[in-house]
Amino acid sequence: MKRVLPQPVLSLVLLISWLVLNNSIAPGSIVMGAIVALIVPWITHRFWEIGAGVKDFTALIGYVGIVLVDIIQANFVVARQVLGANRSLNSQLFELELDLEGALPISILAATITLTPGTVSCRVSPDQRSLWVHALHADDAQTEITTIKQRYEARLQRIFGQPVTAGATESTSRGAES
Amino acid sequence: MQAIELLAIVVLLPFFAAPLAAWSARFNRYAAAWVAGGATLVALALFAWLVYGHIDLMPVATSHAWIEAAGLSFGFRLDGLSMMFTGLILVIGLLIVIYARYYLSPGDSMGRFFAYLLMFMGAMLGVVLSENLINLVIFWELTSLASFLLISYWQHRKEARYGARLALAITGAGGLALLGGVLILGHIVGSYELTDVLAAGELIKNHDLYAPALILILLGVFTKSAQFPFHFWLPNAMAAPTPVSAYLHSATMVKAGIFLLARFFPALAGTDLWVIIVSSAGLATFLLGAYTALFRHDLKGLLAYSTISHLGLITLLFGFGTQLAAVAGIFHILNHATFKASLFMVAGIVDHETGTRDMRRLGGLIRFMPHTAALGMIAAMAMAGVPLFNGFLSKEMFFTESVRVAGSMGPVWLLPLLVSLGGLLSVAYSLRFVHDTFFGRPDGDLPKKPHEPPGMMKRPVDLLVVLCLAVGILPALVIGPLLHIAVTGVLQTEPPYYSLSLWHGFNIPLLMSAVALAGGVALYLMRRPIFRWHALSLAHLDARVVYNRLMELLMRTGAGVTAMVDTGRLGRIVLFTLAFAFGAGILGYLLPLGLEPVRNAVERGATPDNGDWVTWLGIGLIILAAMVTTVWHRQRLFALITMSVVGLGVAMIFARFSAPDLAMTQLSVEVVTMILLLLALFYLPQQSRKLSTPARRWRDAGIATAIGGGISALTYAIISRPFESISGYFLDQSVPGGGGTNVVNVILVDFRGYDTFGEITVLALAGLGIFAMLKGLSLPASKRDPFGRTWTEDPHPLMLRTFTQILLPLTLLFGVYVFLRGHNEPGGGFIAGLIVASALVAQYMANGIETAERKLHLPIHGILGAGLLIALGTGLASMGFGVPFLTSAMAHFSLPLIGEIHLASAIAFDLGVFLVVVGSTMLILLNLGRLTDHAVEHPDYSAIETSPAPRSTRRGNDA
Amino acid sequence: MIHVSLGIALVLIVIAMGLATYRLLKGPETADRVLALDTMSINAIALLIALGIWFETSINFEAALLIAVLGFITTVALSKYLIRGDIVE
Amino acid sequence: MTNLALSLLIGVLTGAGVYLVLRAQTFPVVLGLTLMSYGVNLFLFTMGRLQTAAPAVIGAVENPTDPLPQALVLTAIVIAFAMTAFVIVLALKARAALGNDHVDGMHIPQADRVLDRKEEPRA
Amino acid sequence: MIFDLIVSALILFGAAFVLLGSLGLAKLPSFFMRLHGPTKASTLGVGSILLGSAVYFSAQGGLSVHEILILIFLFLTAPVSALLMARAGMHRGLKGDNPSHEDKRD
Amino acid sequence: MTANLISLLVLLPVALAAILTMTGQRLPTLSRGLDVAGVAVLLAVSAGLLLTGAGDTPQVIELGSWAAPFGIVWVFDRLSGLMLLLTATVALLALVYAIRRDEDQAGPHFHALFQAQLFGLNGAFLTGDLFNLFVFFEVLLLASYGLLLHGNGRKRTRAGFHYVVVNLIGSTLFLFAVGALYGTVGSLNLADITLKLPDVAPDAVPLVTTAIFLLFTVFLIKGAAFPLYLWLPGAYAHASIPVAALFAIMTKVGLYSVLRVDSVMLSDNSIGGLVETTTLIAPWLLWLGLVTLLLAALGVVAARFVRRQVAYLIIASVGTILIALGLVTGNAGEAAIGGALYYWMHTTVLSAGFFLLAGLILHHRPEAGDGIESAPPMPHAILVGSLFFAYAIAMAGLPPLTGFFGKIMILAAALDSPLMAPIFAVILTSGLIMVIALARAGSRLFYQSQATPGHPAHARPADARVALPGVGMAVLPLVLAGAMVVGAQPLSGWLAGTAAQIAASDGYLDAVMPDGVLDPAHAPGKFGADQDGGSH
Ligand code: NA
Ligand code: NA
Known about the structure:
The complex is a heterohexamer of chains A (178), B (959), C (89), D (123), E (106) and F (536).
Chain A: H1 8-22, H2 27-44, H3 57-83, E1 92-97, H4 103-115, E2 119-124, E3 130-135, H5 141-159, H6 171-177
Antiparallel strand pairs in A: 1-3, 2-3
Helix pairs in contact in A: 1-2, 3-5, 4-5
Chain C: H1 2-26, H2 30-54, H3 61-84
Chain E: H1 2-27, H2 31-34, H3 36-59, H4 67-91, H5 99-105
Helix pairs in contact in E: 1-3, 3-4
The complex binds sodium ion (2 copies).
């Protein structure tokens, strides 16, 4: 089974992608999509080293929802900042200690940071212990760090079944949103 | 076969014998001589038999077409003239072979010598026996080549090399002129056969092209026969071994020019032009040669100039243009051949036995070699024109003729006077030859102790000297019949009456002879002051100086012009190429103008414009990006980025104007190109230096503007015209004939699949070529970035690694999608190939080459080869059905669930395309990427080749 | 209505293109230029899609998708060059 | 107007390519060749005349554009890519062999004459 | 009609954000600040236009969802691109703060 | 059968190239064998086709079964057959030499590139389509780039870069030219364009002529006419020897294209009824030929080493051929083409051989290489010197070898030309200059044994026991030249027939476009418009 279908989830994603790409759920498309969904992982699975490791799917869905909302919100914030007087922006680069572990979780966190509020992740330290973040406007770096850790890192720890450390002190916010 | 066709054998025999001689010398030192002698003897016998059989039929000719288009035939002719010359060549040749057998020293290669000599003999026979004019020129040039080899026989001697090249240059030039002349002559007559040419004398002489033909032919004659001002090669040719000098440079080759005068006498002679050119050249040569001969200290030098003088004499005779003069000329040819060959051989014996030919060192040899001395004296008296020797007779005829024609050439006394002066000089140098060598006081320290040579070395001379005497005493009996036949051959009619008797009574010619003899003796007796005067004045005049200057000029011109044009610089090459193309384009445009009013493309405006301001702005943006790339190209990375904008813009234009396939191709090629250039840039300076001057940059900008403007104009003129093409067919046939709705793709894989096949070969070849180039290449890599900072040593960014893992399968899926739909929708093998390749390359960028290699392990060469073979195989499969290469087939299937499936074999072809694209792109990029393995770190590389200003590390130096 | 809004949208996108071009030329950092190029390719996607609606054709959809994929790869390559020089180590 | 603009663009691309090809270092020359190929590809493309929203896909539109130049350009693009790849690697090779990236390798006549005979591998 | 409205809104919204991203790119005073515009606003803007397109073509008849794929691609790649460019900026030694403030201090 | 054999001439090399790509690295002996066998087959097939008269009427193969002008066609006639034969001949010489001297081992993929080169060449010679000609120019060029750079060397690399850049510019020009022709005439097929030229609208006439002039510029770049030949001396002189020898055919591709396009498209045609085409290009060719020949002769003088001298001799032959192709008046044109073809055969085979000989000199004179200077004597100096002498004679156009005969045929054809005087002057003078230069070179190389420090003259006897691998390939061309001289009558007759075939373009047009210009709407589809797309 492992040989024929090394990555079942990926295969499923690919099949769906195929159908989306073809705008079609005709039998022909499904057959073709299935073939492709079987063959492609067979070529690419050796590259797959991140592992899946998602433990809490409901948390994942919730996370996606939050992020989507944040993205839209953040964009309006950024819009105001861009259109406004840029001189007043207090822009800064700061380092964020990571409690999260693993390539995929860290990457997702970094991506989230970039897509949401006025922050961009700039560099994951080689030891994967810290993340450099740039904020377009932040009065105080520590506040930003806390927000990120509580809002995203903690959730990601939960999704990937890691001991939650970041948001432990701020149980209120967790409660408010779940 | 008719017997006369055997004439060709006479000519070819020496040529066949030549390699045999060279080869035989490996076994026995003298075998080559035997071969040469044997071949000559056989040729002589054969020729004698032929003459015997055809004596009453002459002239007879035989001819086989060789290159009809050029009028060339392999044809030979037997008449009096050719008979006389053939006899001369073979008889003297035989004697020379015998003589040379003894002459050459143990260090000399016999094989080469006789091989060359035989080649020369054959060439000479070819010249005199040719019926076809071009055939004649072929052999004529061969005599020059053989002579080159013979003169340079002692190649370690500088003067031999010089003499050989000099002779080749002069006689070669003459030969080419002769070729030109002969071609024109044949053109006038309408035939290159001598029979026709000789019969067309009047036609030729009245033709417009007579003068150029005559001048070109005479150039050949004068160079070969060492006529002034081309005489100077002959003395230098004396660097050859003496047998060669005797044979080529007195008896035969130099007579080839004279032969030609005789040969063309009926066709060309008699006009004013002929008389003026030929006789003045002859007279000048006659006098100059005689004068110079007197002052040569080298025996062979003296003989060489004497030969020049006598050749001048004969030329002068032919120059008179009268039939009797021609008779005298022919007679003197025979006489000169006998006495001059004898004298050369005598000089050779002296050289051979004493080790020197310098008359200032020689003397009194009569005591050591009386026999040789006697031979020398007899031959010298013949040369001086002493009665009872053959030279006297022809000289008397010469004097007679000069008196006869004197009236028509300047004052009546002038020609006889000059002619007598020449005679006088020849008496003086003949006397010097004999006296300085055999009489007087012997110089004490000759290199060798002189004695008589081996007998066989003298036999040939004996024979010739006897002939000199026999002809001199009993001319009518000994030479009369031969001369008659020869003269008939020259004139091509029965000759006029002439007398061969010794005594014609007291007359002006006799007086001239007496004056010449007495004056010559007197001159020799008072030689010392004259020699001193000569040494101070004219001795420094040397025609070689002119030649050397000319050669130097040629070398300098050659080197100069070549260096001027071919500088080996790319800028020059490109400039010439572009300028030529521009000129050609403009010329092409201007040529038809004036033939028809050309409507101005701008006025047309009839074509509906389908643009909008978005497009115009987009185009403006691309123009801007292109300009920026150009202007700021020295910041290489920046230029790369702006060029990427250009690429993106071009893709957008394709998309905008209904070319989705092109847009996709352009996009994917763009990114692959960018990666490629980045990979390369790592090993190159990050900035270009400012190497050209402002003037040069303005010039280049001007050229660029002109060419760009031209292209713009051309484009606009074309696309604002209405137009009809063959494309309707493709639209009609795409579905029924090609089985696909995406016409572009159907064209690519079916209608013009063969183009595509060539194109993937190009791609594969690029991969192979790059692979080959990169093999073993090591390059200093820059340790610093464009701003002088050292690159980071960070590992591969985590986020990149993670996300490319997710993107890879998606991108591959997209590639498959693009490939599969290609035949019906925009897409296809190319684009899919490039997409897949770039997705894979992204893995390499994200994970590093080592990791990626380990994981992917692509058999790239295999993919490439398989792709080519699949494409080829698809095409070949059709040939199995008896239809041409690449004929596509289609099939319809109806499968349950899936429904209609329409397959065209062209899809298999497209698969080949896909694989080749993937294979070669990966091959190129990965091999370039792997370069780092071999990279030699060059710590100061940036510092050397880029000039980052110190402040530029701060900010903004790349703008 | 769609045509009106599309027209406005096209204007906006074209202005966006122009602003990206400005940054591309202005720099001052090479990183700025890379960013500008990246932005341009995103804008190009917007342009293609918008034009696709305008002309009622999805023929250029694949081209837009391709820009998304390849624009990313271009940015990766350029950034990696700025960071490490050797983009395929 | 569009025709004119495109003609201008093609001319600019070609001219820019020409200017760069005349530079003295390998990299700009390669850039120039690439720009020239953009120019000529567009030229070839426009030879089929310009049509909007008329892709040569059967059944998509009434009057499809001329597909042949597109096929030609596609071939030309790929060939130009192959050539660019080759020439840039060659530029690297030249840089390795000659020690600099000048198109003439800094051309020193005396050195060249020595090179003429010294560089050949002996059999 | 309702589709027209949705499509128009999506397109206008998207185009506005596309412009906004580029405006940020052009206007903001330092590299790190400029990074924010395109990576967020432009991505969102394109996403909105893509949705508009999906709605439009679906309304024309036949489901059109393949635009989603571009969207996914963009959202997957934009953060990576941003990180890499930021990394390049850090390597270059660029400051994360607002240079306008320096002017004030000077 | 004939069609399959013709197809084989193109497809065998590419199949072998693909196979050799895979075998080349691991199985060197097999690769050599395959390569040689492939070339031998090409030689045999092309010779066989010509001998059996396959090209006496042009044979047309419609690739993909699409008729001209819609599909691409191969046209095999005497001219293309002759080119294929010459290609195979030169290839065999070069290949055997390379193998004998192990030069194929100097870098990877020699044999694959070699076959690819033949694929490109044969494809270019056979095609009847201008864009396809472009594609095959690219194929043969890329293969030639690979071959040119085969092995290493600083000057080779530099020359290679120049060669590549110039050819890329040439390729760009080619596309401009073909594009402009398509944009005005609306076709790519040579015959179709020919038939459509008279109907070009008057206002398009200057555009068409511009396109034609650009097209010929491209051909002349490849053909190496003045002032476009500057890429050649460096490239040829610095390529490895067998590659330089193979390149003897390269300039001929350009000249072939000139001849083919000129004779089909521009003979007795008119553009839009306004421009007479016969004299549109030819007179320029004549003048270019004259200048090229003269400058090349001076280049022969200036050359400091033998390979460069041979390169200039090749340019000189280009000049000579161009002069011949420029003679279009009356019957002279046909005679000139006949002469040009004879000269063409001569110069292709002999310049290849001369390069091989230069290789022997280069590799066996450790002190001087092929520099035209004195050095201690080389082994087999007499043999090599004699060969040099023979090549010099042949290339300078002296009898009794082929150069002379080709030249007199051309000169004879020029007799009717109003430009007879300059033609004669240039051809004869340049011949003389080349004789002088070659005599000087030969004299220095072989006669002037030099004492160098540590090497007194003749200290190293010209050892005849040293092996001289590959010498046979330097002898063979001379043997062929001899055969061409002895067999000049039948050969020149055949070439006259070929010239007549070339001059009578109707035969070509009829073969490619039997029905004349087709209306696309009524053109037959594949297999008689098989609307259902059934399989076969
Ligand atoms: Na003396
Ligand atoms: Na020597």
